[in-house]
Amino acid sequence: MAGFRITKPYTMPRDEVREAAQGLAASLEREHGVRSRWEGDSVTIRGAGVDGRMSFHDGLIDVSVRLGLLASMFESVIRDEVQTYLDEHVT
User: Fold this and answer.
1) Which domains, from first to last, does the chain contain?
2) pLDDT (tens digit, 9 = 90+) per residue, 14-61?
3) Closest CA to 21 of 31, 4, 8
4) Which of 34, 40, 56, 79 is least surrounded by Cβ atoms within 10 Å, i.e. has the fewest?
């Protein structure tokens, strides 16, 4: 199973980080048809061939994604999309 992990430090207030994380989850829902479910400061993302988790704590956002065979063909596209979103919305 293919996948990737992205971590990014942040210094912005926690509520702004949560807002950015919610925006990323919403974007992934729109663009890739996944569903998200929040539990505290973590969100689980699931869809056809996609299983991921995003959390933020101790000044670090951590995104881990596992991709099934078909979705793995789009690994670089999804990874780049997540990285770009984080770079633009998280400081």
Assistant:
1) 2-89 (3.30.310.80)
2) 999 999 999 999 998 988 889 999 999 899 999 988 999 999 999 999
3) 8
4) 40
